[in-house]
Records
---
Amino acid sequence: MNDIAANLAAARARIDAACARVGRDPGEVELLPVSKTHPLDALRVAHAAGYTRFGESRPQEIEEKASGLADLDLAWVHIGHLQTNKARVVVEHVAEFQALDSLRLAESLDRRLRAAGRRLPVLVQVNSSGEGTKGGFAPDEVPDAVRALGALDALDVRGLMTLAAHTDDQDVVRACFTTMTDLQARLRDEHGGGFDALSMGMSNDFELAVECGSTCVRLGTAIFGARPPLV
Ligand SMILES: *Cc1c(COP(=O)(O)O)cnc(C)c1O
């Protein structure tokens, strides 16, 4: 627990150094602590260190944490796959949804958001590695999907999110990240700008992601330590 503040500072310094290597403004890159599976006290420590946005991937856990930490002013960022029947939790508690991976989910979220009278910032998840185990739209499907999302008024499409290939081969990881910046450029061309958010980079690859243009690195293990295995 004592390490969390030090881990945040060390990761932030590594992000800033990666920015410096490629001439980027460090203010463009958010460190999003990913607190899934970690206890309320861990989030309290990160909050005391100045962090208010937290990445989570299970609706039930978000509800529990939102109620256990109701005394803090926190914003929940949903970063995992969402079943359509769990859209209610996102509409009630989530400030930003980074894992939009199907039009069916988009329509369900849009319907519930309109009923609740709110809009939701979303990122379109892209399967940049082509691995069958990873969610998201194939890169080629994204331009059509984004056009379709334009009809859903309650969804505010801010950009793209990905999980790169899980490998030590830096060239393979870099190819995932450049697939994303290529796609971002293509969307900006077609729509005349926008799509500024690029959520990419996790504990094992965030410095490369920052060098390649990430605006949000999602760090779990590097901040909070190892997670218990998912059941
Ligand atoms: C769990 C998770 C992370 C954090 O992973 P670490 O390797 O622990 O940093 C990032 N992004 C998504 C989508 C996740 O589910």
---
Amino acid sequence: MYLHGTSRINRQGHLEIGGCDTVELAKRFGTPLYVMDEEMIRERMRSFVKACREQTDFAFRVAYASKAFNTLAMCRVVEEEGLMLDVVSEGELVTALAAGFPAERIYFHGNNKSKGEIKRAISAGIGWFVVDNFVELELLQQVANSLGQVARILLRVSPGIEAHTHSYIQTGQEDSKFGFDLASGQAFEAARLSKKMKGVQFEGLHCHIGSQIFETEAFTLAIGKMARLAEQCEQAGYPISILNVGGGFGIRYSADDKPLAVEEVIQAIAETVKREFRFAAHQPEIWVEPGRAVVGEAGTTLYTVGTVKKVPGIRKYVAVDGGMTDNLRPALYQAKYEALLANRATETETEVVSIAGKCCESGDMLIWDIALPKVKQGDILAVGCTGAYNYSMASNYNRLPRPAVIFVNKGEADIVVERETLEDVIAHDRIPMRLQKQMVSEA
Ligand SMILES: *Cc1c(COP(=O)(O)O)cnc(C)c1O
């Protein structure tokens, strides 16, 4: 397994993260356990901010796409590092507000924002809405007007670019549930309409062309298309001041992944905007909104090995105490992960096994064919790169309680999300009167 961030192998031959021995962490907090390397999270945010600062021709802003991993403590880190925050639901918004995150640095994404969500977000004083469709545009202006406010907006555009990635996570192609279609003129029409509305203020354009992107070309192509739309808008008398080019910066889940350096992507984005926006009286401010590139590599999940089963002549299954409930991505996208035995990290690999989850689904496999030392019951398996879209997609399938999340930093380990209890799992269940067990009265 590739060792990201502060991960290393200590003198006991154990995996250590943030100065904490993961075997000790497993003992202290139980498994499955999400371990987040706080220093690495901060370091990743700083690398985006620094790369953006170095592009001195432009004003850049970096937002964290909170859907990748959103908790109260995470919002504190995002605020401390000076990033903006993008949210896609009232739940993500409330998390940020409850953490004291400044509302004016929040903006709201999503293809089906409810009236209630819009009301709450305007009342809280968030910075911007990224408007996804005509129905939302109309609803937003109504709500803003009824509250006597003006909502600042970006329009989400579907630019018709396919980033080279698994089709389920492509969002930039024309046939998309997200955004105003560019090719058919919808996007321009939305800009034109919004300029006539009282409750909204059109400030810019947004696109997000996919995730796990490994080449700058996807961004440069999209920016070219967005620039033509911006030019059309400027000619019509409504120049844009913000161009948000989305997130999707690829990370290294496994050896097959070759992510670009942050500096390289940011530079390519800046150069392309400079070239494509020559027409503009003022260059727009550029926004980027990485999610997984901030938290993905900083997360590691610890599991305890349970049963080991050999299918003669076929394969050996090693089952762990979690699975698709804490990491849905292998089942959802055939995502690849690497792992090691945290308690015997220096031992040589002697066998190829497949890591199974404990859920009642044949598709609940975390890793196919991984080389490990001979695995025994009770070993601690560490799966790397689980910081993004793991905790945030976790479920209670099979009524498994969701794992705890801890932040580790310089030898300290702190719980940022408590492990769910079995009481939590049944806490919202109700038994209707007619189904309640009859108590036979003695009288
Ligand atoms: C999911 C998403 C992101 C973040 O994507 P990553 O692959 O995690 O960087 C950014 N912007 C929008 C609109 C998204 O939907």
